[in-house]
Specification:
Blueprint lengths: L11 H6 L5 H11 L8 H9 L16 H4 L3
């Protein structure tokens, strides 16, 4: 059984966007945050390497949230 990312409670990205309901947002959360493949998350990698969180607008892919993506509900 897959586990949620151990950083989910403190992740400013997840906490900012977790209420988004579009399929695209939900897919990101399922892949990286909610038991999918958290070890692929660039935010998580950055945290473990630096001890800090990247900006809340950096996606788990390591890219900035685009205007188009941010506009999705």
């Amino acid at each position: 059984m897959a586990k949620d990312c151990e950083l989910i409670d403190h992740c400013c990205f997840f906490n900012k966007f977790k209420n988004r309901q579009s399929i695209a947002w939900q897919g990101i959360f399922r892949i990286y945050c909610l038991g999918g493949l958290p070890f692929l998350c660039e935010r998580r990698r950055f945290h473990f390497e630096s001890g800090q969180q990247p900006s809340e607008n950096i996606m788990p892919t390591g890219k900035l949230v685009s205007r188009g993506f941010a506009a999705l509900p």
